[in-house]
Design brief:
InterPro entries: HD, Homeodomain-like_sf, Lag1/Lac1-like, TLC-dom. Helix content is about 70%, strand content about 0%. Helix 12 packs antiparallel against helix 13.
């Protein structure tokens, strides 16, 4: 649904730009910061009316139903076939005061807060801590949910990459990046590239709109920065008619994400050997595309080659600044990937995954399966029995028993 709303927003912005008497393909140098902000603000003002007034009724049942079918009819059964298993988690009992504190204040109360909650609810501190642990585990996404999220992203990246490559393979700027600026700013935009832009922009807007409900990752903040920078990059490149180089940027980014999402899917299915192979393949593709192709081909042509065709203006500096933000994120993620490659090469397996396809480690120590959870009294009895067994078998006790035996042996004269 969020993806559909994003596409509707983009179509409305496109209509506003086409009727604003400012043709971005012919007057790119007139785009100043004030002009750019005014256009965006003018479009945002009308988005609410466009979505909630003109589109109250469900006018796109096929699009929505196809997305639901992908998740319910294909993704979920596929997860079962591949062997994805969900952990059985204990549901926290209904305690209104604890539930209100959990939702309104904190999911991990401090020791003083635990004491206060225990007095209010008439429960021990141990039971309060156990309730919050169960409640946190209850909100953790299941492996099936994470598999479905990775599967629909895989479908998008694969579709987008094939569509982008098919629309660019015959273009001159795909092979010679200097052609991105020949004839600029009067460069016509083909229908294929227009829909390629709509597809990518709608996807990244949907990621930003659904960031609060998606699975939290270790690089959550970096992902948000990446989505915002990408949205500004796609939107501004279309307004400034940087469409040719913009299509190359999107194609480069989609190439490695396909392998990443497949690796996530098989990771949740515990296909360890296949995941290791895909991780190595992903690392190679990511390092080549993000650390070589992106800076040497794309940033080089936007930063240096473009100045051979026109003088720098606001769009030149703004667009390159966004590209450098993306490149900084690429370097950060490459560092994490190289750490994993080092562990994989010298340890032999990947432990403590630091890539972006892992969850936030906030509650890693709190995760416990059903049947492995027991009450504090049961744990205490188990500990006491183990201590008793240890006391009966320890070396010190054996020495004591040996001394008692020797004391009972009659002494020889």
């Amino acid at each position: 649904m969020s993806y559909l709303v994003a596409v509707l927003c983009l179509e409305h912005i496109e209509q506003l730009l086409m009727t604003s008497h400012i043709n971005p393909s012919s007057t790119a140098k007139l785009i100043t910061p004030v002009c750019f902000i005014n256009r965006v603000a003018f479009a945002i003002i009308h988005i609410y009316t466009y979505i909630y007034v003109k589109h109250q009724k469900n006018e796109f049942p096929l699009l929505i139903s196809s997305g639901l079918c992908l998740l319910r009819v294909i993704a979920i059964p596929l997860s079962k076939v591949l062997g994805v298993k969900d952990r059985n988690r204990i549901r926290a009992p209904s305690i209104p005061k604890l539930e209100a504190f959990y939702k309104q204040h904190s999911q991990q109360p401090s020791q003083s807060e635990v004491v206060g909650l225990g007095k209010q609810c008439g429960l021990s501190q141990r039971k309060i801590q156990t309730w919050f642990r169960h409640r946190r585990n209850q909100d953790r996404p299941s492996n099936t949910k994470k598999f479905c999220e990775a599967s629909w992203r895989f479908v998008f990246y694969l579709t987008s990459f094939i569509a982008g490559l098919g629309s660019l393979i015959d273009t001159p700027w795909f092979w010679d990046q200097s052609e991105c600026w020949r004839g600029y700013p009067k460069q016509p935009v083909s229908e294929a590239h227009y829909w390629y832009y709509m597809l990518e922009m709608g996807f990244y807007l949907s990621l930003l709109l659904s960031v609060s409900v998606d699975v939290k990752r270790k690089d959550f903040k970096e992902q948000v920065v990446h989505h915002i920078a990408t949205i500004f990059l796609i939107g501004f490149s279309y307004i400034a008619n940087y469409v040719r180089v913009g299509t190359l940027v999107m194609l480069v980014h989609d190439s490695s994400d396909i392998i990443l999402e497949v690796g996530k899917m098989l990771h949740y299915a515990l296909w360890t050997t296949t995941c290791d192979f895909l991780f190595v393949l992903f690392a190679l593709v990511f390092l080549v595309t993000r650390l070589y192709v992106f800076p040497s081909r794309i940033i080089h042509t936007t930063l240096i080659v473009s100045m051979e065709f026109f003088e720098p203006f606001f769009g030149y500096y703004f667009f390159n600044a966004l590209l450098f933000v993306l490149q900084a994120l690429h370097v950060y993620w490459a560092y994490l990937i190289l750490r994993m490659v080092y562990r994989f090469a010298f340890v032999g397996k990947i432990e403590g995954d630091v890539r972006s396809d892992e969850e936030s480690p906030v509650d890693d120590n709190d995760e416990e399966e059903d049947g492995g959870e027991c009450s504090w009294e049961q744990r205490k009895d188990a500990i006491n029995s183990r201590l008793a067994s240890l006391a009966n078998n320890c070396v010190l006790n054996n020495l004591t028993n040996q001394t008692n035996i020797n004391s009972r042996v009659p002494k020889t004269r």
